[in-house]
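User: ok so my PI wants both of these folded by tonight, can you help

Assistant: No problem, let's get them done. Here's the first:
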Amino acid sequence: MGIEPSATWLQVVAVCGAVAAMLYGLNIIYKRVKAKNQGFGPATLKAVGVVLFIPTILILAVVTDFQSETLAALLGTVAGYVLSNGKSDD
């Protein structure tokens, strides 16, 4: 049939690894915010966004049939978000 069992297991392992990376990253962010006794600010929001978005792109790349150009555009969006200054010059 059309799908090889080894490719399916590889997809399952990749998705489980991405979910584990998400949970680990969220745990690290939570521990740092709690240790510094600070609130949920813009830097924390940016960190949570990156921790959730990059593994999601990995999952989409493995599970779906997205073209490489689409994945490159999504990664470019993440890079722009992470590297943006975020401060307005008012």
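One down. Here's the second:
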Amino acid sequence: MAIDRDTARKVAHLARIRVDEAGLDALAAELSGILGFVEELDELDVTGVEPMTSVTPMALKRRADVVTEGENAARILANAPDAREGFFAVPKVVE
């Protein structure tokens, strides 16, 4: 699949990266190369191959799901950079 200049411009816009008009051809070529590599992967026979998340087998550590009494607010808030009146204080993000 070949990427043209317009598609490269759109991808750059969506990725929020600034690409000069002169660099669009190079970006289109790089994106086409990436898609070509992905198309090569479709040629592999992967029947019977289990999906994996890592090259080394590993299992997530589990902990017992037990109900506690809580009462840990003071210990938890001790790690907070800013705590007020028993709550985490965070900067205002909405004007």
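The chain is about 35% helix and 5% strand. The helical segments are 5-14, 24-41, 73-77. Good luck tonight!
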